[in-house]
Each structure stands twice: as structure tokens, then as C-alpha cells.
Amino acid sequence: RFSGKDFEIVIIDDGSPDGTQEVAEQLEKIYGPERILLRPRPRKLGLGTAYIHGMKHATGNFIIIMDADLSHHPKFIPEFIRKQKEGNFDIVSGTRYKGNGGVYGWDLKRKLISRGANFITQVLLRPGASDLTGSFRLYRKEVLQKLMEKCVSKGYVFQMEMIVRARQLGYTVGEVPISFVDRVYGESKLGGNEIVSFLKGLLTLFATT
């Protein structure tokens, strides 16, 4: 509000049982429907379709995508904007693995899986970005639209493919160190099925890029 930036907040809720929609409705009443755009969907339909759904309602030239549970802290948004202007980047990606970035609230197993996923991806795909599985990012709207047309992955691999395809298409990527704090409410699910899906997706990307 006091930044001098013209902005809107588009909230996509896929029928979550934790009261997200009720909180968003309260925010809409406080700040007005021109600032808070609540665009719910009746059930969980996947992250990629949520991006597409959100883009339909976004009016700006740039889109910042973040988790609404405050695992991604809004305090980093001005740094994303500054970085984009500094290098005229097509994408600015938050990184937990560079500079003073970090992860808080994860056990050792989760940290090892995330680090391992990034390391394997760096070796196989050489994407030129240090954090491929995070989702706190700024995109030019037209770049995000183009990437969504190209990306076919789901789940854990989706964010990784976004960066790999961006490099493939010649888009520029900048990075901002962020602190990721695991959610206080709810549960992040990362089991054997997700790991197998990640490895399959990684090999598919390796074979097609």
C-alpha cells in the first residue's frame, strides 16, 4: 500500500479444508475486491492449472507467485522487484541455497531430499539456477504464459521444468536469496511416490532438453 506500486493479490484456493477461503473473504472486505481477488475452485486440480487460472485474472505485466501459508515471506517481494529492474530479468527466482538463503523447520531427511534433488538436477541439466524446486518467483506475464504452454510436468518436477524450459527458450533468470520457513499449519507431503515421480520427470527432462 505504501510502496507506490500498483498491485493486486490473486488468491487461488482449491477447496482447502483449513479455512483459507474464509480468511481471503475477510481480507477482500477490508482491502476491497480491486486489491484482493479471490478466485476459488471447487476441488484440488493441480498447481499448473492454478497458475493458468490465476493468470486469467491478473492484470499486471509481472506476476509474483508464492505460497499463501507464509512459508514465503512477503518481505522479500521488494527485493524481487529490485532484482528484476537491475537486470531486466524475465524471471526472478527465490533461492534457499545461495547467499544468505536458508530453510527453517525441516528435518534432516527433508533437507537431504531437497539438496539431493537440486544436486542431481544441476549435474544432469545444468540449468544455471541454484534452487529449482522452490516456487517463490517473479515472472513477466507473457513469459509465464509461454512457459505454461511448454511445460508438461506435474507435482515436484513442475517448478524445475519451468526454469529448464526458460533457459531452453532463452529467457533470463535472476536469483534472490530467501528464507523458507516450513508451514506451521497443515502438512507438506513428500513421500516415496513423489520421489519416484521426481526421478521419472528428471529423466524425461534430461532426454528432451
UniProtKB/TrEMBL annotation:
<comment type="function">
    <text>Transfers mannose from GDP-mannose to dolichol monophosphate to form dolichol phosphate mannose (Dol-P-Man) which is the mannosyl donor in pathways leading to N-glycosylation, glycosyl phosphatidylinositol membrane anchoring, and O-mannosylation of proteins; catalytic subunit of the dolichol-phosphate mannose (DPM) synthase complex.</text>
</comment>
<comment type="similarity">
    <text>Belongs to the glycosyltransferase 2 family.</text>
</comment>
<comment type="pathway">
    <text>Protein modification; protein glycosylation.</text>
</comment>
<dbReference type="InterPro" id="IPR001173">
    <property type="entry name" value="Glyco_trans_2-like"/>
</dbReference>
<dbReference type="GO" id="GO:0004582">
    <property type="term" value="F:dolichyl-phosphate beta-D-mannosyltransferase activity"/>
</dbReference>
<keyword id="KW-0460">Magnesium</keyword>
<dbReference type="GO" id="GO:0006506">
    <property type="term" value="P:GPI anchor biosynthetic process"/>
</dbReference>
<dbReference type="Pfam" id="PF00535">
    <property type="entry name" value="Glycos_transf_2"/>
</dbReference>
<comment type="subunit">
    <text>Component of the dolichol-phosphate mannose (DPM) synthase complex.</text>
</comment>
<keyword id="KW-0479">Metal-binding</keyword>
<dbReference type="GO" id="GO:0005789">
    <property type="term" value="C:endoplasmic reticulum membrane"/>
</dbReference>
<keyword id="KW-0464">Manganese</keyword>
<keyword id="KW-0328">Glycosyltransferase</keyword>
<protein>
    <recommendedName>
        <fullName>Dolichol-phosphate mannosyltransferase subunit 1</fullName>
        <ecNumber>2.4.1.83</ecNumber>
    </recommendedName>
</protein>
<keyword id="KW-0808">Transferase</keyword>
<dbReference type="GO" id="GO:0046872">
    <property type="term" value="F:metal ion binding"/>
</dbReference>
<dbReference type="InterPro" id="IPR039528">
    <property type="entry name" value="DPM1-like"/>
</dbReference>
<feature type="domain" description="Glycosyltransferase 2-like">
    <location>
        <begin position="4"/>
        <end position="147"/>
    </location>
</feature>
<dbReference type="InterPro" id="IPR029044">
    <property type="entry name" value="Nucleotide-diphossugar_trans"/>
</dbReference>
<dbReference type="GO" id="GO:0035269">
    <property type="term" value="P:protein O-linked glycosylation via mannose"/>
</dbReference>
<keyword id="KW-0256">Endoplasmic reticulum</keyword>
<dbReference type="GO" id="GO:0006488">
    <property type="term" value="P:dolichol-linked oligosaccharide biosynthetic process"/>
</dbReference>
